[in-house]
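Running co-folding for nicotinamide-adenine-dinucleotide.
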Amino acid sequence: MSTLNPGKKLRGAVIGYGFISGKGHIPAYLERAKSKGDVEIVAVADISEGRRAEAARVLPGVRVYSDYESLLAKEKGNLDFVDISTPPCDHARIAHAAFDAGLHVLCEKPLTTTLDEAASLLKHAQESKRVIFPCHNYKHAPVVKTIREIIASGRIGKVTSLTLSTYRNTHAKGVTEWNTNWRREKKYSGGGIAMDHGSHTFYLTFDWLGAYPTAVTAKMTNLSQYDTEDNFSCVLTFPTGVAHAHLTWTAGVRKVIYTVQGDRGAITVDDDDLQLAVMESTGGPDVAQGAVKWNVEKQVIQSNWMDASHVSWFNSMFDQFAECISKGEWVGKEAKESYLCIQLITTAYRSAADGCRELPLATDVRL
Ligand SMILES: NC(=O)c1ccc[n+]([C@@H]2O[C@H](COP(=O)([O-])OP(=O)(O)OC[C@H]3O[C@@H](n4cnc5c(N)ncnc54)[C@H](O)[C@@H]3O)[C@@H](O)[C@H]2O)c1
């Protein structure tokens, strides 16, 4: 890492200037550079000529490279971190190269496409004393923050079960200048909707059930001509309860529906709409005779779900990354959870391939 940085400003390079960096990360960095002045993007690398031209147009003054190797060779002395926004197949080797160059790493999900790669990245981060931090940005959606606050307030009691459904009418498309359908090609993506979206679903279950799952059973189907699944369902067993997840790229609508069941109430979320139902005893002998009634509150919490770049969630997440850097938390909670997400996804694939057999999950991270 460079010693040229006198203030607290973090200087970064973005590797992969596609949809998420062009519409999400870069606009958020530019806004943050203006409002807080604690970040600056000095370089970008992309293998696509068209994307490099777009980066040069949008970011005058930023140095643009055709591959991450030449960027790291030339810029490592000017940088504190790299932001890896390429397809998942390249996350691990770019992150290893960044650690070798002495840089911190912010990495898009899924962290890697195999568990061995995830383990070796976490180990490398620890050994090189550099932060590895995954983009677990759904935790930063305003409505998701409210779910967390309600659970923490104790109003719904102890959480016992969850359902998390993600409906998409198609796979997310990458920029047209490279390979817009890479998410459907296993060699780039490592898998279909579970690999692409599973991390978001799974780190939310860890948070809401306050534990890590011990077993998974999964089923998946593919209605397309591609070599990856477009529908995925699983049941996760936790020491504290159970979670059901359903992810589809063949839905008739784009939305999330989450339910969180507690022993004194429940939360139901449909994108921005949140309903909180809290039990109230009426003093009668039992429920069947009307001993419980529910006080229901409804709120609308604007979370911009329809904007797939989730630009408005980015800087709350970047605060966490910056905090890990300042505290020297090389492999923090989010990084460990990204590993557990990869374990879950890859184990779920084995379960689905073996007639939905329930398979055990480790709840710790081997480093
Ligand atoms: N957290 C979220 O909400 C969210 C949303 C969208 C995408 N993502 C993640 O962001 C990553 C990128 O997805 P996207 O939708 O932006 O894809 P994209 O196809 O739009 O962009 C990928 C870019 O990376 C470039 N690229 C490919 N291989 C490269 C390499 N080896 N070195 C340098 N550049 C390379 C391509 O030319 C392209 O410009 C994926 O990991 C995806 O899962 C996360």
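Result summary
The longest strand covers residues 159-167.
Residues 162 and 243 are 5 Å apart (CA to CA).
Job closed.
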